[in-house]
Amino acid sequence: MISDTNFPGQASNVSVGSVRHLSAILGLQWGDEGKGKVVDSLSQEADVVVRFQGGSNAGHTIYAGTTKYVFHLVPSGMLHPTVQGLISHGVVVNPLKLIGEIEKLESQGLSLKGRLFISSTATVITPFHIDQDTKLEAGAGASAIGTTKQGIGPAYTDKISRKALKVKDLYSPAKLREFLTPQGLALGFDAATVEGHFKTLQNCAEKLEQYLCDSFEFLERRYKEGAHILYEGGQGALLDVEYGTYPFVTSSSTTFAGIYAGAFVPRDAQIEVIGIIKPYVTRVGGGPFPTLMEPEAHQIIQTAGKEFGATTGRPRKCGWLDLPLLHYAVKISQVDVLGFMKLDILQELSEIKICVGYEWRGKKVEHYYPSIDLEEVKPLYEVIPVTAPLVIDSKLTAAGEAFIKYLEQKSGVPVRYVGTGPERLQLVVRG
Ligand code: GDP
Ligand code: IMO
Ligand code: MG
Questions:
Q1: Ligand 1 proximity of 278 Cβ (cutoff 6 Å)
Q2: What pTM value is reported for the model?
Protein backbone atom coordinates (compact mmCIF):
# COMPACT_ATOMS: atom_id res chain seq x y z
CA MET A 1 0.00 0.00 0.00
CA ILE A 2 1.44 3.36 -1.00
CA SER A 3 1.03 6.12 1.52
CA ASP A 4 2.27 9.68 1.78
CA THR A 5 4.77 8.53 4.41
CA ASN A 6 6.39 6.03 2.05
CA PHE A 7 6.93 8.60 -0.65
CA PRO A 8 6.84 12.04 0.93
CA GLY A 9 5.80 14.75 -1.47
CA GLN A 10 4.98 12.33 -4.26
CA ALA A 11 2.08 10.17 -3.28
CA SER A 12 -0.33 12.89 -2.21
CA ASN A 13 -2.14 12.70 -5.56
CA VAL A 14 -2.36 8.93 -5.58
CA SER A 15 -5.55 7.44 -4.26
CA VAL A 16 -5.85 3.72 -3.78
CA GLY A 17 -8.55 1.60 -2.29
CA SER A 18 -11.75 2.83 -3.90
CA VAL A 19 -12.18 1.57 -7.44
CA ARG A 20 -14.02 3.70 -9.97
CA HIS A 21 -15.34 2.25 -13.18
CA LEU A 22 -14.60 3.79 -16.55
CA SER A 23 -15.63 2.37 -19.93
CA ALA A 24 -13.94 1.36 -23.14
CA ILE A 25 -15.45 0.45 -26.47
CA LEU A 26 -13.24 -1.77 -28.61
CA GLY A 27 -13.80 -3.47 -31.97
CA LEU A 28 -13.31 -7.24 -31.85
CA GLN A 29 -13.07 -7.98 -35.57
CA TRP A 30 -11.29 -6.24 -38.46
CA GLY A 31 -12.93 -2.86 -37.76
CA ASP A 32 -16.30 -1.36 -38.77
CA GLU A 33 -18.24 -3.34 -36.17
CA GLY A 34 -20.45 -0.35 -35.31
CA LYS A 35 -18.30 1.13 -32.52
CA GLY A 36 -19.34 4.72 -33.31
CA LYS A 37 -23.01 4.00 -32.71
CA VAL A 38 -22.36 2.43 -29.29
CA VAL A 39 -19.98 5.24 -28.30
CA ASP A 40 -22.72 7.72 -29.18
CA SER A 41 -25.26 5.87 -27.07
CA LEU A 42 -22.97 5.49 -24.04
CA SER A 43 -21.92 9.12 -24.30
CA GLN A 44 -25.29 10.06 -22.83
CA GLU A 45 -23.67 9.14 -19.53
CA ALA A 46 -20.07 10.10 -20.27
CA ASP A 47 -18.29 13.36 -19.59
CA VAL A 48 -15.14 12.74 -21.64
CA VAL A 49 -14.69 10.54 -24.72
CA VAL A 50 -11.08 9.73 -25.63
CA ARG A 51 -9.50 8.48 -28.84
CA PHE A 52 -6.23 6.84 -27.80
CA GLN A 53 -4.76 5.29 -30.99
CA GLY A 54 -5.03 5.25 -34.76
CA GLY A 55 -6.00 8.29 -36.75
CA SER A 56 -8.17 9.18 -39.70
CA ASN A 57 -8.05 5.57 -40.90
CA ALA A 58 -11.04 5.22 -38.57
CA GLY A 59 -14.50 6.03 -39.86
CA HIS A 60 -17.24 5.86 -37.24
CA THR A 61 -20.74 6.50 -38.55
CA ILE A 62 -23.78 7.70 -36.66
CA TYR A 63 -27.20 8.26 -38.20
CA ALA A 64 -29.27 10.77 -36.25
CA GLY A 65 -32.61 11.10 -37.98
CA THR A 66 -31.78 11.86 -41.59
CA THR A 67 -28.31 13.24 -40.83
CA LYS A 68 -25.23 11.08 -41.27
CA TYR A 69 -22.20 12.01 -39.19
CA VAL A 70 -18.83 10.36 -39.84
CA PHE A 71 -16.16 10.73 -37.17
CA HIS A 72 -12.55 10.07 -38.18
CA LEU A 73 -10.37 11.80 -35.58
CA VAL A 74 -12.96 13.62 -33.49
CA PRO A 75 -14.39 11.31 -30.79
CA SER A 76 -17.84 9.94 -31.66
CA GLY A 77 -19.49 11.13 -28.45
CA MET A 78 -19.58 14.75 -29.55
CA LEU A 79 -23.20 14.76 -30.70
CA HIS A 80 -23.99 15.19 -27.00
CA PRO A 81 -23.43 18.90 -26.31
CA THR A 82 -21.88 18.57 -22.86
CA VAL A 83 -19.40 15.81 -23.78
CA GLN A 84 -15.73 16.74 -24.03
CA GLY A 85 -13.69 14.94 -26.68
CA LEU A 86 -9.99 14.26 -26.32
CA ILE A 87 -7.58 13.23 -29.08
CA SER A 88 -4.92 11.75 -26.85
CA HIS A 89 -1.18 11.40 -27.28
CA GLY A 90 -1.37 7.90 -28.82
CA VAL A 91 -3.24 9.18 -31.88
CA VAL A 92 -1.58 10.14 -35.17
CA VAL A 93 -3.09 13.44 -36.30
CA ASN A 94 -3.26 14.79 -39.81
CA PRO A 95 -3.85 18.52 -39.10
CA LEU A 96 -5.37 19.24 -42.50
CA LYS A 97 -7.82 16.32 -42.21
CA LEU A 98 -8.70 17.28 -38.67
CA ILE A 99 -9.55 20.84 -39.66
CA GLY A 100 -11.65 19.53 -42.55
CA GLU A 101 -13.49 17.20 -40.16
CA ILE A 102 -14.10 19.97 -37.61
CA GLU A 103 -15.46 22.25 -40.35
CA LYS A 104 -17.70 19.52 -41.72
CA LEU A 105 -19.10 18.67 -38.27
CA GLU A 106 -19.63 22.36 -37.50
CA SER A 107 -21.45 22.78 -40.84
CA GLN A 108 -23.74 19.97 -39.62
CA GLY A 109 -24.56 22.00 -36.53
CA LEU A 110 -22.06 20.67 -33.96
CA SER A 111 -20.14 23.18 -31.92
CA LEU A 112 -16.75 21.79 -30.90
CA LYS A 113 -15.18 24.95 -29.54
CA GLY A 114 -14.27 24.68 -25.88
CA ARG A 115 -14.97 20.95 -25.74
CA LEU A 116 -12.58 19.38 -28.23
CA PHE A 117 -9.06 18.84 -26.90
CA ILE A 118 -5.97 17.72 -28.81
CA SER A 119 -2.88 16.44 -27.08
CA SER A 120 0.16 18.59 -27.78
CA THR A 121 2.22 15.39 -27.76
CA ALA A 122 0.16 13.49 -30.33
CA THR A 123 2.15 12.56 -33.46
CA VAL A 124 1.66 14.56 -36.66
CA ILE A 125 0.93 13.02 -40.05
CA THR A 126 2.36 15.20 -42.81
CA PRO A 127 1.40 15.17 -46.51
CA PHE A 128 4.70 13.34 -47.09
CA HIS A 129 3.60 10.47 -44.82
CA ILE A 130 0.56 10.04 -47.04
CA ASP A 131 2.79 10.04 -50.10
CA GLN A 132 5.00 7.40 -48.45
CA ASP A 133 1.99 5.25 -47.58
CA THR A 134 0.70 5.46 -51.15
CA LYS A 135 4.11 4.66 -52.70
CA LEU A 136 4.79 1.75 -50.33
CA GLU A 137 1.44 0.22 -51.20
CA ALA A 138 1.89 0.75 -54.93
CA GLY A 139 5.33 -0.88 -54.78
CA ALA A 140 4.21 -3.89 -52.74
CA GLY A 141 2.26 -5.59 -55.54
CA ALA A 142 0.38 -8.67 -54.36
CA SER A 143 1.64 -8.27 -50.79
CA ALA A 144 0.12 -4.79 -50.42
CA ILE A 145 -1.65 -4.38 -47.09
CA GLY A 146 -4.52 -2.42 -48.59
CA THR A 147 -4.09 0.49 -46.20
CA THR A 148 -6.44 3.45 -46.05
CA LYS A 149 -3.58 5.60 -47.42
CA GLN A 150 -3.94 8.03 -44.54
CA GLY A 151 -0.21 7.94 -43.73
CA ILE A 152 -0.80 5.90 -40.56
CA GLY A 153 2.04 3.39 -40.97
CA PRO A 154 4.75 5.91 -41.92
CA ALA A 155 3.80 8.27 -39.05
CA TYR A 156 3.91 5.46 -36.46
CA THR A 157 7.19 4.27 -38.02
CA ASP A 158 8.66 7.70 -37.29
CA LYS A 159 7.32 7.55 -33.76
CA ILE A 160 8.84 4.13 -33.06
CA SER A 161 12.09 5.33 -34.67
CA ARG A 162 12.04 8.21 -32.18
CA LYS A 163 12.00 10.97 -34.77
CA ALA A 164 8.30 11.84 -34.98
CA LEU A 165 6.96 15.34 -35.35
CA LYS A 166 4.70 16.10 -32.40
CA VAL A 167 1.76 18.53 -32.49
CA LYS A 168 3.63 21.00 -30.28
CA ASP A 169 6.50 21.03 -32.83
CA LEU A 170 4.17 22.67 -35.36
CA TYR A 171 4.63 25.86 -33.33
CA SER A 172 8.41 25.87 -33.75
CA PRO A 173 9.36 26.93 -37.30
CA ALA A 174 12.84 25.46 -36.78
CA LYS A 175 11.54 22.04 -35.67
CA LEU A 176 8.93 21.93 -38.39
CA ARG A 177 11.54 22.71 -41.06
CA GLU A 178 14.04 20.29 -39.56
CA PHE A 179 11.45 17.51 -39.93
CA LEU A 180 9.80 18.43 -43.21
CA THR A 181 12.81 19.32 -45.38
CA PRO A 182 14.70 16.00 -45.20
CA GLN A 183 11.42 14.09 -45.33
CA GLY A 184 10.32 15.84 -48.53
CA LEU A 185 13.71 15.80 -50.22
CA ALA A 186 14.21 12.08 -49.46
CA LEU A 187 10.94 11.39 -51.26
CA GLY A 188 12.11 13.37 -54.32
CA PHE A 189 10.05 16.53 -53.77
CA ASP A 190 11.53 19.93 -54.59
CA ALA A 191 12.14 22.77 -52.16
CA ALA A 192 9.03 24.63 -53.36
CA THR A 193 6.77 21.70 -52.47
CA VAL A 194 8.39 21.42 -49.06
CA GLU A 195 7.84 25.13 -48.51
CA GLY A 196 4.19 24.77 -49.56
CA HIS A 197 3.58 22.03 -46.99
CA PHE A 198 5.51 24.03 -44.37
CA LYS A 199 3.13 26.97 -44.83
CA THR A 200 0.05 24.75 -44.89
CA LEU A 201 1.03 23.06 -41.63
CA GLN A 202 1.75 26.41 -40.00
CA ASN A 203 -1.71 27.64 -41.02
CA CYS A 204 -3.26 24.48 -39.62
CA ALA A 205 -1.34 24.93 -36.37
CA GLU A 206 -2.77 28.41 -35.99
CA LYS A 207 -6.32 27.09 -36.39
CA LEU A 208 -5.77 24.17 -34.01
CA GLU A 209 -4.04 26.13 -31.23
CA GLN A 210 -7.34 26.79 -29.41
CA TYR A 211 -7.83 23.03 -28.94
CA LEU A 212 -4.39 22.08 -27.58
CA CYS A 213 -3.96 20.51 -24.18
CA ASP A 214 -1.70 18.29 -22.15
CA SER A 215 -3.68 15.05 -22.41
CA PHE A 216 -2.17 13.60 -19.24
CA GLU A 217 -2.99 16.66 -17.14
CA PHE A 218 -6.44 16.90 -18.71
CA LEU A 219 -7.41 13.29 -17.96
CA GLU A 220 -5.95 13.34 -14.46
CA ARG A 221 -7.83 16.53 -13.62
CA ARG A 222 -11.15 15.48 -15.14
CA TYR A 223 -10.96 12.12 -13.37
CA LYS A 224 -10.38 13.84 -10.03
CA GLU A 225 -13.35 16.09 -10.75
CA GLY A 226 -15.44 12.94 -10.99
CA ALA A 227 -15.79 12.77 -14.78
CA HIS A 228 -16.87 9.52 -16.37
CA ILE A 229 -14.31 8.73 -19.05
CA LEU A 230 -15.08 6.61 -22.10
CA TYR A 231 -12.17 5.32 -24.19
CA GLU A 232 -13.10 4.90 -27.87
CA GLY A 233 -11.13 2.36 -29.88
CA GLY A 234 -10.41 2.64 -33.57
CA GLN A 235 -10.10 -0.41 -35.87
CA GLY A 236 -10.47 -3.83 -34.24
CA ALA A 237 -8.59 -6.51 -32.32
CA LEU A 238 -7.62 -8.47 -35.44
CA LEU A 239 -5.91 -5.37 -36.85
CA ASP A 240 -3.77 -4.89 -33.71
CA VAL A 241 -0.07 -4.53 -34.51
CA GLU A 242 0.92 -6.99 -31.76
CA TYR A 243 -1.97 -9.48 -31.72
CA GLY A 244 -3.60 -9.09 -35.14
CA THR A 245 -3.16 -10.93 -38.41
CA TYR A 246 0.32 -9.50 -38.93
CA PRO A 247 1.49 -8.07 -41.33
CA PHE A 248 -2.05 -7.32 -42.52
CA VAL A 249 -2.74 -5.02 -39.59
CA THR A 250 -2.71 -1.37 -38.74
CA SER A 251 0.28 0.18 -36.95
CA SER A 252 -1.21 0.74 -33.50
CA SER A 253 -2.41 -1.25 -30.49
CA THR A 254 -6.14 -1.49 -30.96
CA THR A 255 -6.72 -3.74 -27.95
CA PHE A 256 -6.87 -3.17 -24.18
CA ALA A 257 -3.14 -2.51 -23.87
CA GLY A 258 -3.42 0.37 -26.33
CA ILE A 259 -5.61 2.33 -23.94
CA TYR A 260 -2.88 2.47 -21.30
CA ALA A 261 -0.19 3.38 -23.81
CA GLY A 262 -2.18 5.96 -25.74
CA ALA A 263 -4.06 7.73 -22.96
CA PHE A 264 -3.69 8.13 -19.24
CA VAL A 265 -5.65 5.73 -17.04
CA PRO A 266 -5.73 6.63 -13.33
CA ARG A 267 -4.40 3.80 -11.20
CA ASP A 268 -7.53 3.29 -9.13
CA ALA A 269 -9.75 3.15 -12.20
CA GLN A 270 -11.07 -0.10 -13.50
CA ILE A 271 -12.10 -0.17 -17.13
CA GLU A 272 -15.19 -2.07 -18.18
CA VAL A 273 -14.61 -3.20 -21.75
CA ILE A 274 -17.50 -3.38 -24.16
CA GLY A 275 -16.39 -5.41 -27.18
CA ILE A 276 -18.27 -4.71 -30.40
CA ILE A 277 -19.04 -7.36 -32.98
CA LYS A 278 -21.34 -7.97 -35.92
CA PRO A 279 -23.09 -11.32 -36.46
CA TYR A 280 -20.80 -11.71 -39.46
CA VAL A 281 -17.30 -10.36 -40.12
CA THR A 282 -16.04 -7.87 -42.67
CA ARG A 283 -12.60 -6.92 -43.85
CA VAL A 284 -11.22 -4.22 -46.13
CA GLY A 285 -7.69 -4.56 -47.37
CA GLY A 286 -5.56 -7.69 -47.65
CA GLY A 287 -4.85 -10.59 -45.33
CA PRO A 288 -6.33 -13.96 -44.44
CA PHE A 289 -10.09 -14.24 -44.21
CA PRO A 290 -11.06 -17.88 -43.58
CA THR A 291 -14.85 -17.54 -43.48
CA LEU A 292 -15.44 -15.59 -46.70
CA MET A 293 -19.10 -16.03 -47.66
CA GLU A 294 -20.32 -17.78 -50.76
CA PRO A 295 -21.18 -15.29 -53.54
CA GLU A 296 -24.97 -15.27 -53.05
CA ALA A 297 -24.90 -14.66 -49.28
CA HIS A 298 -22.03 -12.21 -49.77
CA GLN A 299 -24.05 -10.11 -52.17
CA ILE A 300 -27.08 -10.03 -49.84
CA ILE A 301 -25.08 -9.06 -46.73
CA GLN A 302 -22.84 -6.52 -48.46
CA THR A 303 -25.85 -4.76 -49.97
CA ALA A 304 -28.20 -4.94 -46.98
CA GLY A 305 -25.43 -4.09 -44.50
CA LYS A 306 -24.10 -1.27 -46.74
CA GLU A 307 -20.67 -2.77 -46.24
CA PHE A 308 -18.62 -0.06 -47.92
CA GLY A 309 -15.80 1.75 -46.13
CA ALA A 310 -16.65 4.94 -44.22
CA THR A 311 -13.14 6.30 -44.91
CA THR A 312 -12.25 4.98 -48.37
CA GLY A 313 -15.59 3.83 -49.82
CA ARG A 314 -14.02 0.45 -50.65
CA PRO A 315 -16.33 -2.60 -50.59
CA ARG A 316 -15.84 -4.68 -47.47
CA LYS A 317 -15.42 -8.43 -47.90
CA CYS A 318 -18.05 -10.28 -45.86
CA GLY A 319 -17.60 -13.57 -44.02
CA TRP A 320 -19.41 -15.77 -41.49
CA LEU A 321 -18.93 -15.13 -37.79
CA ASP A 322 -15.69 -16.80 -36.74
CA LEU A 323 -15.88 -18.04 -33.13
CA PRO A 324 -12.20 -19.08 -32.78
CA LEU A 325 -11.22 -15.52 -33.67
CA LEU A 326 -13.94 -14.10 -31.40
CA HIS A 327 -12.67 -16.11 -28.40
CA TYR A 328 -9.19 -14.79 -29.12
CA ALA A 329 -10.35 -11.18 -29.48
CA VAL A 330 -12.29 -11.41 -26.19
CA LYS A 331 -9.10 -12.52 -24.44
CA ILE A 332 -6.75 -9.93 -25.90
CA SER A 333 -9.20 -7.09 -25.37
CA GLN A 334 -10.19 -8.24 -21.86
CA VAL A 335 -13.86 -7.96 -22.78
CA ASP A 336 -16.54 -7.82 -20.09
CA VAL A 337 -19.67 -7.50 -22.22
CA LEU A 338 -20.53 -7.55 -25.90
CA GLY A 339 -22.27 -5.05 -28.13
CA PHE A 340 -23.76 -7.06 -30.97
CA MET A 341 -24.60 -4.81 -33.90
CA LYS A 342 -26.49 -5.30 -37.13
CA LEU A 343 -28.66 -8.19 -36.04
CA ASP A 344 -31.31 -6.80 -38.41
CA ILE A 345 -29.03 -7.51 -41.37
CA LEU A 346 -28.71 -11.20 -40.59
CA GLN A 347 -32.41 -11.81 -41.11
CA GLU A 348 -31.97 -11.03 -44.80
CA LEU A 349 -30.70 -14.61 -45.11
CA SER A 350 -32.76 -17.79 -44.79
CA GLU A 351 -29.80 -19.69 -43.41
CA ILE A 352 -26.66 -18.55 -41.66
CA LYS A 353 -23.40 -20.22 -40.81
CA ILE A 354 -21.27 -19.85 -37.70
CA CYS A 355 -17.68 -21.03 -37.75
CA VAL A 356 -17.24 -23.06 -34.55
CA GLY A 357 -13.72 -24.34 -35.18
CA TYR A 358 -11.11 -25.06 -37.81
CA GLU A 359 -9.54 -28.07 -39.34
CA TRP A 360 -5.84 -27.31 -39.33
CA ARG A 361 -3.02 -29.64 -40.31
CA GLY A 362 -5.26 -32.71 -39.85
CA LYS A 363 -6.57 -31.64 -36.42
CA LYS A 364 -9.75 -29.98 -35.22
CA VAL A 365 -9.15 -26.79 -33.24
CA GLU A 366 -11.76 -24.70 -31.42
CA HIS A 367 -9.45 -21.91 -30.35
CA TYR A 368 -7.24 -19.67 -32.41
CA TYR A 369 -3.66 -19.00 -31.34
CA PRO A 370 -1.25 -16.80 -33.30
CA SER A 371 0.86 -19.80 -34.36
CA ILE A 372 -2.10 -21.12 -36.38
CA ASP A 373 -1.76 -20.07 -40.00
CA LEU A 374 -5.15 -18.67 -41.01
CA GLU A 375 -4.26 -19.19 -44.69
CA GLU A 376 -4.24 -22.95 -44.01
CA VAL A 377 -7.37 -23.45 -41.92
CA LYS A 378 -10.64 -24.95 -43.14
CA PRO A 379 -13.58 -23.50 -41.19
CA LEU A 380 -16.04 -25.91 -39.55
CA TYR A 381 -19.57 -24.53 -39.53
CA GLU A 382 -22.82 -24.89 -37.66
CA VAL A 383 -25.69 -24.03 -39.98
CA ILE A 384 -28.66 -22.19 -38.47
CA PRO A 385 -31.91 -21.74 -40.39
CA VAL A 386 -33.54 -18.32 -40.01
CA THR A 387 -37.23 -19.21 -39.91
CA ALA A 388 -38.61 -16.10 -38.17
CA PRO A 389 -37.63 -12.42 -38.05
CA LEU A 390 -34.95 -11.59 -35.47
CA VAL A 391 -35.92 -7.93 -35.25
CA ILE A 392 -39.31 -6.25 -35.71
CA ASP A 393 -39.84 -2.50 -35.26
CA SER A 394 -36.32 -2.14 -33.88
CA LYS A 395 -37.07 -4.66 -31.11
CA LEU A 396 -35.78 -8.16 -30.56
CA THR A 397 -38.22 -10.94 -31.34
CA ALA A 398 -38.25 -14.28 -29.51
CA ALA A 399 -36.13 -15.69 -32.35
CA GLY A 400 -33.73 -12.73 -32.05
CA GLU A 401 -33.45 -13.25 -28.29
CA ALA A 402 -32.83 -16.98 -28.82
CA PHE A 403 -30.04 -16.18 -31.27
CA ILE A 404 -28.42 -13.78 -28.80
CA LYS A 405 -28.57 -16.44 -26.08
CA TYR A 406 -26.93 -18.92 -28.47
CA LEU A 407 -24.17 -16.40 -29.08
CA GLU A 408 -23.71 -15.73 -25.36
CA GLN A 409 -23.38 -19.43 -24.74
CA LYS A 410 -20.89 -19.88 -27.59
CA SER A 411 -18.78 -16.83 -26.72
CA GLY A 412 -19.02 -17.08 -22.94
CA VAL A 413 -19.65 -13.33 -22.75
CA PRO A 414 -22.94 -11.56 -21.94
CA VAL A 415 -24.47 -9.42 -24.68
CA ARG A 416 -25.61 -6.08 -23.28
CA TYR A 417 -26.27 -4.07 -26.44
CA VAL A 418 -27.94 -5.21 -29.64
CA GLY A 419 -28.07 -3.12 -32.81
CA THR A 420 -31.41 -3.42 -34.56
CA GLY A 421 -30.96 -0.81 -37.31
CA PRO A 422 -28.59 1.96 -38.42
CA GLU A 423 -30.29 4.83 -36.58
CA ARG A 424 -28.71 5.89 -33.27
CA LEU A 425 -31.86 4.98 -31.34
CA GLN A 426 -32.05 1.49 -32.84
CA LEU A 427 -30.11 -0.06 -30.00
CA VAL A 428 -31.57 -2.48 -27.49
CA VAL A 429 -30.04 -2.51 -24.02
CA ARG A 430 -30.44 -5.92 -22.34
CA GLY A 431 -30.63 -6.26 -18.58
P1 GDP B 1 -17.21 1.61 -36.76
O2 GDP B 1 -16.01 1.97 -37.57
O3 GDP B 1 -17.00 0.41 -35.92
O4 GDP B 1 -17.78 2.76 -35.99
O5 GDP B 1 -18.34 1.18 -37.82
P6 GDP B 1 -18.69 1.94 -39.20
O7 GDP B 1 -19.40 3.19 -38.89
O8 GDP B 1 -17.50 2.02 -40.08
O9 GDP B 1 -19.62 0.86 -39.87
C10 GDP B 1 -20.77 0.39 -39.24
C11 GDP B 1 -21.97 0.73 -40.14
O12 GDP B 1 -23.08 -0.01 -39.71
C13 GDP B 1 -22.37 2.19 -40.07
O14 GDP B 1 -22.83 2.61 -41.32
C15 GDP B 1 -23.50 2.20 -39.05
O16 GDP B 1 -24.42 3.24 -39.27
C17 GDP B 1 -24.14 0.87 -39.33
N18 GDP B 1 -24.80 0.26 -38.17
C19 GDP B 1 -24.40 0.27 -36.88
N20 GDP B 1 -25.22 -0.48 -36.14
C21 GDP B 1 -26.15 -0.98 -36.98
C22 GDP B 1 -27.27 -1.87 -36.80
O23 GDP B 1 -27.54 -2.35 -35.73
N24 GDP B 1 -27.97 -2.17 -37.92
C25 GDP B 1 -27.68 -1.66 -39.16
N26 GDP B 1 -28.42 -2.03 -40.19
N27 GDP B 1 -26.65 -0.83 -39.34
C28 GDP B 1 -25.89 -0.51 -38.27
P1 IMO C 1 -12.60 1.75 -37.97
O2 IMO C 1 -12.15 2.51 -36.74
C3 IMO C 1 -11.68 -1.17 -41.07
C4 IMO C 1 -7.47 -1.52 -42.22
C5 IMO C 1 -7.12 -1.14 -43.64
C6 IMO C 1 -5.94 -2.08 -43.89
C7 IMO C 1 -5.22 -2.08 -42.53
C8 IMO C 1 -4.06 -1.10 -42.45
O9 IMO C 1 -13.54 2.52 -38.83
O10 IMO C 1 -13.10 0.40 -37.59
P11 IMO C 1 -3.92 1.54 -42.20
O12 IMO C 1 -4.46 2.64 -43.07
O13 IMO C 1 -4.44 1.58 -40.81
O14 IMO C 1 -2.43 1.44 -42.26
O15 IMO C 1 -4.47 0.18 -42.89
O16 IMO C 1 -6.20 -1.72 -41.58
N17 IMO C 1 -8.18 -0.48 -41.45
C18 IMO C 1 -9.49 -0.52 -41.16
N19 IMO C 1 -10.44 -1.40 -41.56
N20 IMO C 1 -12.00 -0.16 -40.23
C21 IMO C 1 -11.04 0.71 -39.80
O22 IMO C 1 -11.26 1.62 -38.84
C23 IMO C 1 -9.74 0.57 -40.31
N24 IMO C 1 -8.58 1.25 -40.14
C25 IMO C 1 -7.64 0.60 -40.82
O26 IMO C 1 -8.18 -1.39 -44.52
O27 IMO C 1 -6.41 -3.38 -44.12
MG1 MG D 1 -15.44 2.22 -39.57
A1: no
A2: 0.95
